[in-house]
Design brief:
This protein has 301 residues and is an alpha/beta fold. It has helices at residues 13-24, 61-67, 83-90, 113-124, 147-156, 175-187, 206-217, 228-239, 243-253, 264-270, 277-293, and strands at 4-8, 32-37, 52-55, 73-76, 96-100, 129-135, 138-139, 159-164, 173-174, 194-198, 222-227. The strands form three sheets. It has a seven-stranded parallel sheet with strand order 3-2-1-4-5-6-10, sandwiched between helices. A two-stranded parallel ribbon has the order 7-9. The protein has a two-stranded parallel sheet with strand order 8-11. The two termini are 35 Å apart.
């Protein structure tokens, strides 16, 4: 019997990657998928997929309840902070709940880490069979807001100042690898009532990542190390003038954290084998180039 699946956040970068994968997966291509969208049937990010589109807001209980039609499987790819409203709307009908969370739950510098943990606990205690996926920094699309910007910096400059850190502070995961894990969580009984860290194959310092990007681009790059203390002071000063800059300061503080994550449970249960960062960067550059060549394609925020 085909599965009935209700998806929030399908129009985002991870959601679109999952829909592409599901459409090519013989175990999922026959499923009936309903995607929640604030734009409704006019959502250009979803019209290319064989899905039913319903209008609604995952952050509002009444809106979500009206859009939800009792699908047995619910996938939340939107904000983890929508979990309370989603659970209220689907309780009593959903028998399977797959939630995309974040490894930010482990950070001592991320202001909302405690709230992420609270939402995860709500999932665990909901009585619904669940799978929690905690991706690291997601990249691989033109609008990923992190690695794509780093690629552009390397592409445009021959000299880059880099905050000095000896820690392997990044283990980015390609969006296609995360999409794979969502799909496999749907298919594998071993994933029921489990939480998985979904990380890239290896962890790198910022300097190592920049060097890999330069190598894939075939570009010679000079990096200038800057002590984190100086970078923090500059970010603190800028933060007094810009809220956006204060967010950048939080990112600088997190450079002092070792964000290397063990994904062996996902490897065992989901047969997860993430692509190398070199391969992922190559795919990301190709994706960005394709988007730049298409005048009708615009980043979706």
């Amino acid at each position: 019997m085909p599965q009935r699946i209700f998806i929030t956040g399908a129009g985002g970068k991870t959601g679109r990657a999952f829909l592409r994968r599901a459409s090519e997966d013989p175990d999922l291509s026959g499923s009936s998928m309903t995607c929640l969208s604030r734009r409704g049937t006019g959502d250009p990010t979803l019209n290319a997929f064989p899905v039913r589109i319903v209008q609604g807001d995952a952050g509002e209980v009444e809106s979500l309840t009206a859009a939800y039609s009792g699908e047995e499987i619910v996938i939340n790819i939107s904000s983890i902070f929508h979990v309370p409203t989603i659970l209220e709307a689907v309780q009593g009908s959903a028998r399977r709940f797959i939630v995309v969370s974040s490894t930010g739950v482990f950070s001592k510098y991320r202001e909302n880490a405690a709230e992420i943990a609270r939402c995860e606990e709500m999932v665990r205690s909901s009585g619904i069979d669940y799978t929690i996926l905690r991706p690291t920094m997601i990249y691989g699309t033109r609008d990923d807001r992190n690695i794509s910007r780093l690629i552009e910096l390397v592409r445009r400059h021959s000299i880059l100042p880099i905050p000095r850190s000896n820690r392997h502070a990044f283990q980015p995961v390609h969006v296609d690898d995360l999409a794979y894990c969502i799909a496999e969580s749907l298919k594998r009984p071993s994933a029921v009532n489990k939480a998985y860290n979904i990380a890239g194959a290896n962890a790198y310092s910022l300097k190592e990542m920049v060097r890999i990007i330069a190598a894939v681009l075939g570009k010679r790059l000079i990096t200038i190390p800057i002590p984190i203390s100086i970078a923090n002071a500059a970010a603190r000063l800028a933060g007094a003038l810009s809220r956006r800059a204060s967010l950048q300061r939080e990112q600088l503080l997190r450079l002092s954290e070792n964000k290397s994550f063990d994904y062996s449970d996902a490897a065992d249960d989901l047969d997860y084998r993430p692509m190398s960062f070199e391969e992922g960067i190559g795919k990301a550059i190709e994706t960005m180039s394709d988007a730049a060549d298409d005048p009708d394609q615009r980043p979706v925020i």
